[in-house]
Amino acid sequence: MAGWHVSTAAEAIAAAQFARLGCDVSVQYGANQPEYDLMIARGDRMMKISVKGSSDGGWGLSQSQLIRWRKTNPDGPPNYIAAADMWLDRHNPRTSLCFINFRDVPLDGMPRVYLAWPAEVADKLKGARGGLGDTILFDLPIRNSAKAVVSLEWLMTEERLKSLLDAD
Fold it and tell me: Is the pLDDT of residue 129 over 70?
């Protein structure tokens, strides 16, 4: 799938899953909308959702921030921690990230779906490679334990959605 197709399919799957969990869903059509792609509501709780699709099992998140950091610090080694912090600063802390992975999923199968706060994702990026950090978040299973990997606690379930909606 081309990148645009992955983004479009991921947004559609996310909207469908939130609706299946009893949420009202408002969709901003078109990939790469500012800050969020979906707005969900359940009862009096609302949340913005930024959808990230993948067809290869990874989500490149802070590469552009690493490039920007390198331009201002050309003589030093790459600082993946600074890049993750810069990435985090670009995100509203109350806009949830919804990661959808189509890798190894047959056309009639359901992709893996995860929900996380930006701070949770940044912590994973910064903790990768023994604390040196990374720019890519990977889906399970992965053989290299030094990589930044999604948490199983992030799987999109009724409990996970409720915990994010109820968070203050």
Answer: yes
